[in-house]
Design a protein that fits this description.
With 223 residues, the chain is an alpha/beta fold. Helix content is 31%, strand content 24%. The protein is globular. It binds S-adenosylmethionine. The site of S-adenosylmethionine has 20 residues, from strand 3 and helix 7.
């Protein structure tokens, strides 16, 4: 049964190969550091490669990336998700829209430096990242020190991180972590309004339906 499910998943992933442009191999950590080079050529994958690149990390089923790419044809979107059974759903949602400015990468955020050239990203979107509330898992939070260092390498000059979450404790922890790791934090918002420029994610829709506040911020590496 398990084998059949896996075969079915592989077939579904294969059917998405036009937009799913890279996948982390199963034995990634067995590779020598010099063999971990899967860098995607952003000039090849997008029709308008000179447009700003937005990276969404932990895209889930892709609603935010799809709607954002539709709204902003003048930007390129790369949506990253570590779970292959989740990203396949995102790709399947995206395929019928035929968006030339949206692609997907199936990898762990911690390995993004093996998939992307340095300084190629204008915006990093962290939408409702897992808060990992246990202290012992704090280094898995996507706003912990090791990730913030990696984002500095990926962000082009003037690049920005945009975070949204429903979790106030995680939000305030992220503000401290960003500041401690050399970022200036601004546009801190404790109740992000609906509509306007804001594109809702799947998780956001659930929380807004319960009338819960959404926390948001922007951050840039200090000059
Ligand atoms: C809580 S969900 C939010 C999904 C979507 N952004 C939304 O707002 O609806 C977080 C997603 O991040 C993914 N994720 C967590 N840690 C990750 C990592 N280190 N690298 C890539 N994806 C990750 C999870 O698999 C999950 O799909």
């Amino acid at each position: 049964m398990r084998m059949r499910l896996k075969k079915h998943l592989d077939e579904r992933l294969d059917a998405c190969k036009d937009i799913l442009i890279a996948r982390e191999v199963e034995d990634f950590y067995k590779l020598k550091p010099e063999e971990r080079n899967f860098t995607v050529d952003t000039a090849q994958i997008f029709e308008q490669p000179s447009n700003a690149l937005v990276l969404e990390i932990g895209c889930g089923k892709g609603a935010w990336a799809i709607q954002s790419a539709q709204r902003h044809p003048d930007k390129n979107y790369l949506a990253v998700e570590k779970l292959s059974n989740v990203i396949v759903a995102a790709c399947e949602q995206a395929l019928p829209h035929r968006l030339p400015n949206l692609k997907f990468v199936n990898c762990r955020a911690e390995n993004l430096d093996c998939f992307l050239p340095r300084k190629c990203v204008s915006e990093i979107a962290l939408n409702f990242s897992c808060p990992f509330p246990k202290k012992t898992y704090a280094n898995r939070r996507l706003t912990s020190a090791r990730y913030l260092q990696l984002y500095k390498d990926l962000l082009a000059d003037g690049g920005v991180i945009l975070q949204k979450t429903d979790d106030k404790t995680f939000f305030e922890w992220s503000i401290d972590s960003l500041r401690e790791n050399g970022y200036q934090v601004y546009d801190i918002c404790y109740d992000l309004p609906e509509g306007g420029d804001n594109v809702e994610t799947e998780y956001e829709r659930k929380f807004r339906a319960q009338y819960l506040p959404i926390y948001a911020l922007k951050a840039q590496p200090n000059k």
